[in-house]
């Protein structure tokens, strides 16, 4: 587990643009039950989360269509919430960072770590915007 003071600014990268943090399995289950579209970001302390994933997720919100709900769980910190989120992302293997778009509780779009690592934030944002345009 990472110390709270270490991950606080990393959490704020997403909460300041409208993401809600989920800490428990129940939080995740309730979020995914909501009608409409939900973007789940599995946040991480790694460099690709800082340089690519979090900025890409934030930039993706500059779009006419966007998810109804924005939520995040933090790998290495909120284990119960992360495990539950990842269970809903099957058949994709666990990875962090990662991003999943759900529509009415069903997984419709997934970005795994290998889609994020080494890719510019703008490319990640454009990928997400394409998913928003199709599903939101």
Description:
This protein has helices at 4-15, 25-33, 47-60, 79-87, 113-116, 121-135, and strands spanning 20-21, 37-43, 69-74, 98-103, 106-111. It is of the alpha/beta class and 136 residues long. The protein has a single domain (4-135), classed as Glutaredoxin. The protein has a five-stranded mixed beta sheet with strand order 1-3-2-4-5, with helices on both faces. Strand 2 (37-43), helix 3 and strand 3 form a beta-alpha-beta unit. The longest helix is centred in the C-terminal third of the chain and has 15 residues, at 121-135. The model has no long low-confidence stretch (mean pLDDT 96).
Beta-strand content estimate: 15-25%
Helix content bin: 40-55%
Q: In the CATH hierarchy, what is the class?
A: Alpha Beta
Strand ordering within the main sheet: 1-3-2-4-5
CATH fold topology: Glutaredoxin
Task: Give the structure's gist in a few sentences.
This protein is an alpha/beta fold and 136 residues long. Helices cover 46% and strands 20% of the residues.
Structural descriptors:
single chain, 136 residues, alpha/beta, Glutaredoxin, 5-stranded mixed β-sheet, 6 helices
Topology at a glance:
Layout: H1 4-15, E1 20-21, H2 25-33, E2 37-43, H3 47-60, E3 69-74, H4 79-87, E4 98-103, E5 106-111, H5 113-116, H6 121-135
Parallel strand pairs: 1-3, 2-3
Antiparallel strand pairs: 2-4, 4-5
Helix pairs in contact: 2-4, 3-6
